[in-house]
């Protein structure tokens, strides 16, 4: 998928082992800004595929519905709503019991990058001087052990329980997503990477950073990241979304297309105009 010329690209690949691709992603402009959504489904005969696609659809429709003044609160509300949809479907549709999905959601409004997640899909920012920066923290058993000092990052990467998650969309009736307290400020030349664990669990962050530091297009870099995951065994589906913010070569920021005027604001303007017309007509009749 390519939008905005050579500034954004995404690839979702089933890998070399899995029969189906249970990842799902979508990206594009909404009334709230440029939105990236990525989900990695799990559970049942068709549950993983269903959960990831349902979550992406519900999240996408949520952000298309209207412009939200309080972005952080809207992000939490959005993921709780998506969780309820997946949870209810898992309970009510035969064959979908136990399904769930991870989710990463990144919303770019000008320079402000708002983000939220559940599970072990990840959001990174690459900055040419500072390198690769992980914005999210996995909701996994091994991440908890790392936080407690029981495992090193290197040990966590090869731990047999590294794929056991402690929080997913649809796993329970209620979920509390991790939402950023404040937006990350993007700068010219930075890159945004959203990926499933099919990349982050098999390709070291150093190698990911080297790819993003290269001179290729976003298409080239996405293709290279997927190729690295498959070269490492391709045991999982792998999905990457990559956005190049601005133009380092041009030395000047190239903003994303302006946000659409909020629908609520358009409606308010129409109502005010109608009331003014009615008032004028009443004055003429007096």
From TrEMBL:
UniProt keyword Transmembrane helix, yes or no: yes
Which InterPro entries does the UniProt entry name for this protein? PPM-type-like_dom_sf, PPM-type_phosphatase-like_dom
Q: Which residues form the PPM-type phosphatase domain?
A: 7-245
User: Where would you find the membrane-spanning parts of this chain?
Assistant: 267-285
Q: Which organism is it from?
A: Candidatus Pullibacteroides excrementavium
SUPFAM superfamilies named among the record's database cross-references: PP2C-like
**What SMART domains does this protein's entry cite?**
PP2C_SIG (SM00331), PP2Cc (SM00332)
Output the superkingdom of the source species.
Bacteria
Keywords, A to Z, come to:
Membrane, Transmembrane, Transmembrane helix
Output the Gene3D superfamilies linked to this UniProt entry: PPM-type phosphatase domain
Name of the protein described by the UniProt record: Stp1/IreP family PP2C-type Ser/Thr phosphatase
């Amino acid at each position: 998928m390519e939008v905005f010329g050579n500034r954004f690209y995404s690839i979702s690949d089933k890998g070399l082992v899995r029969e189906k691709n249970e990842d799902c992603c979508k990206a594009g402009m909404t009334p709230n800004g440029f939105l990236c959504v990525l989900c990695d489904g799990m559970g049942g005969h068709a549950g993983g595929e269903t959960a990831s696609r349902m979550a992406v659809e519900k999240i996408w429709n949520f952000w298309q519905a209207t412009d939200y003044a309080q972005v952080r609160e809207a992000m939490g509300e959005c993921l709780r709503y998506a969780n309820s949809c997946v949870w209810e479907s898992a309970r009510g549709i035969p064959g979908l019991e136990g399904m769930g999905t991870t989710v990463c959601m990144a919303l770019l409004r000008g320079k402000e990058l708002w983000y939220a997640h559940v599970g072990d899909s990840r959001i990174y920012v690459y900055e040419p001087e500072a390198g690769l920066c992980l914005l999210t923290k996995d909701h996994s058993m091994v991440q908890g052990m790392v936080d407690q000092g029981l495992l090193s990052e290197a040990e966590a990467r090869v731990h047999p329980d590294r794929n056991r998650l402690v929080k997913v969309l649809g796993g329970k009736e209620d979920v509390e997503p991790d939402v950023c307290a404040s937006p990350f400020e993007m700068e010219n030349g930075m890159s945004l990477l959203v990926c499933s664990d099919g990349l982050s669990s098999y390709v070291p962050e150093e190698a990911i950073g080297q790819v993003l530091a290269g001179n290729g297009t976003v298409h080239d870099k996405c293709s290279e990241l997927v190729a690295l995951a498959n070269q490492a065994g391709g045991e999982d589906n792998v999905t990457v979304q990559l956005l190049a913010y601005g133009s380092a070569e041009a030395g000047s920021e190239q903003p994303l297309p302006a946000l659409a005027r909020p629908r609520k604001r358009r409606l308010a303007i129409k109502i005010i105009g109608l009331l003014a017309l009615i008032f004028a007509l009443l004055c003429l009749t007096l």
